[in-house]
Amino acid sequence: MKKGVLIFVLLYALLHSSAQTTPNIQVAVDTIVKLNSSVITGNITTITPLYISFVLQGTPEEYTIERKEVHKVIYKTGRIEIFNNAAFEILDDSMWEAVWLTDKKKDVGDLYVLGEIESTSPSSARSAAAAKKGAIIKLQKKAANMNGTVILVTKKQNTGGFGEYPGYYIKGIAYGPEPPETISDSGTTGVSLNDAGM
Predict the structure, then answer these.
(1) Which end of the chain offers a freer environment for a tag, N or C, measured as fewer CB atoms within 10 Å?
(2) Fold (topology level) of 96-176
């Protein structure tokens, strides 16, 4: 009889202690770190060139944040993806640093075609890395002047040979969330990706 009571008491204590620890189990979530250092935790559902969508823990509602506001995402798997360099202020739409480059047509979604742009590296570049960086910055500035937010890169090429200064050429199509305000040289206004047949 004493053994039966002792076993019952031990089982009760074991079940009672495990029931108390169950709420402390941590569920893995994604972490969004914004440029202003604030943190959002939840489950990321969509990432596009313009925004990141996520669901907060315990709520069915989906929220969206602009991609240019995000410094990095720490995924529940432990992988870290940097979206923008941390800065003291959030980038403005007109700043060239907010322009994103891609070589995948699906990344431009239903954005409007703003026009074709190209650039070459500055003649002052003394290394291949500096030439590439200079050409990309010039291309981003051209897109920003057109109110573009994404560039679909169509061509990139290293130039300069043995004994010559290195160079870089890059060409692409600027896309933005709003149609262009002026009529282009071809006489057509901006069209969405679907209208352009891509």
Answers:
(1) N
(2) Translation Initiation Factor IF3 (3.30.110)
| CATH T-level assignment (fold) for domain 28-91 | SH3 type barrels. (2.30.30)
Residue 172 one-letter amino acid: G
pTM reported for the whole predicted model: 0.48
Q: What is the mean pLDDT of each run of 10 residues along the chain (198 residues)?
A: 55 53 59 84 90 87 89 87 67 66 84 92 84 90 88 89 82 88 50 43
Contact between residue 108 and residue 89 where contact means Cβ atoms under 8 Å apart: no
The structural domains of the chain, with segments of one domain joined by +, span: 28-91, 96-176
From CA 172, how far away is CA 129, in angstroms rounded?
19
Structure tokens at 155: 């061509």
Tokens of 193: 């990706």
